[in-house]
Amino acid sequence: MIVGGKHYRTVWMESDQVFMIDQNKLPFVFEINRLITYEETCQAIENMTVRGAGAIGAAAGFAMAQAFMQGIDPITARQRIRATRPTARDLFFAVEEVFTAGLNSVESACSAAQRIADKNADAALAIGQAGEKLIADGAHILTHCNAGWLGFVDYGSALSPVYQAHRNGKKIHVYADETRPRSQGARLTAWELLNEGIPHTILPDNAGAYMMSKGMIDLIIVGADRIAANGDAANKIGTLEKAIVAAHYGIPFYVAAPFSTFDKDTIHGNDIEIEYRSADEVHYQMGPDAEGKLNKIRVTNPGSDALNPAFDVTPAELITGIITEKGILKPDQLNFFA
Ligand code: MRU
Fold it and tell me: N vs C: which end of the chain shows fewer Cβ within 10 Å?
């Protein structure tokens, strides 16, 4: 994506240092963080400075390469990186690839990490080309969370077809679910779409059923964090509700993801580990005050508890198709893994 006239990737590595756009500060501040040690990169994954399945996959691969370059015991580093976030398959895929390469040489670890990042961007571009044909001129598209450029190394999954459609001159409108509690839709997806000049509107998370009931949504495209062998797909919490409502109203519901998100070892969606994050993410919101300084404010009743499951699983039967870098698959076609 171009920001201020310059092309950026979401995360990249130079020598033994990792650089990433600080997604916790967007859309209010655009800042690049430099992570000097592999432990700093782990913390950036945990605290969601970098987030989104593809982007944390690349970051995890870079962290593993950093560990090799910095003389950290690779088995300890591999465990530490694997413990940062549990749900996104790309993270585990990248750690294993780079770990295995690093057993040959440090150089092999670095090239493997770079290859994973490059393949992630290439796959996202191809997903855009495959998915673009699903989008009719004039379409109103709903998306949930952020599966755009910031959720990958570049381009994104769910938003990549949207960007292609817009570049091909189709007049489209995107509805971005707010995606509480961390508001990836209201903050990140909206920021990306504005940068791309794509007409869009932020929707409260609970407005989707109303919009669908009124015929205001033609198509839904979301990303995925892990896709089980039976085609069930884990994605940001709230996705399942949209899929159920879409099925009720006969609205096509597509999941976009590269093959690195497919997990042949997880047979059923129920076996996917769902991350539970801190209740504080529900209790507090962050934004700029009148002087532009970022502040946290409490938005829930002090003293009340909150629950924060970060993902849910949409059953394969509710998914119209999965947009991959090799074309659009029916969820029941995934048994090629067996
Ligand atoms: O918790 P996050 O922000 O890392 O959540 C992951 C996601 O961004 C989504 O679930 C997304 O829709 C698919 S991954 C690009």
Answer: C
Summarised one tens digit per residue, pLDDT across range 257-315 is 999 999 999 999 999 999 999 999 999 999 999 998 999 999 999 999 999 999 999 99
Q: Give yes or no for residue 157 CB within 6 A of ligand 1.
A: yes
Tens-place pLDDT, residues 320-335:
999 999 999 998 877 6
Residue 82, SS3? helix
- CATH 1.20.120.420, domain 2-125, yes or no: yes
Q: Label residues 148-165 b or e (16+ Cβ within 10 Å = b).
A: bbbbbbbbbbbbbbbbbb
**pTM of model > 0.90:** yes
Q: Specify whether the CB–CB gap between 154 and 258 falls below 8 A.
A: no
The SS3 assignment for 19 reads strand
Q: Which of 233, 253, 221 is nearest to 312 (CA)?
A: 233
- Look up 225 and say whether it is catalytic: yes
Atom of ligand 1 nearest to the CA of 311: 10
Domain boundaries, given as residue ranges, for the chain: 2-125, 134-337
Cα(94) to centroid(ligand 1), Å: 16
Phi, psi of 32 (to 5 degrees): -105, 130
pLDDT in tens, 209-246: 999 999 999 999 999 999 999 999 999 999 999 999 99
CA-based nearest residue to 33, from 47, 49, 53, 55 = 49
Q: Return the CATH class of domain 134-337.
A: alpha beta
- The DSSP output letter for 254 is E
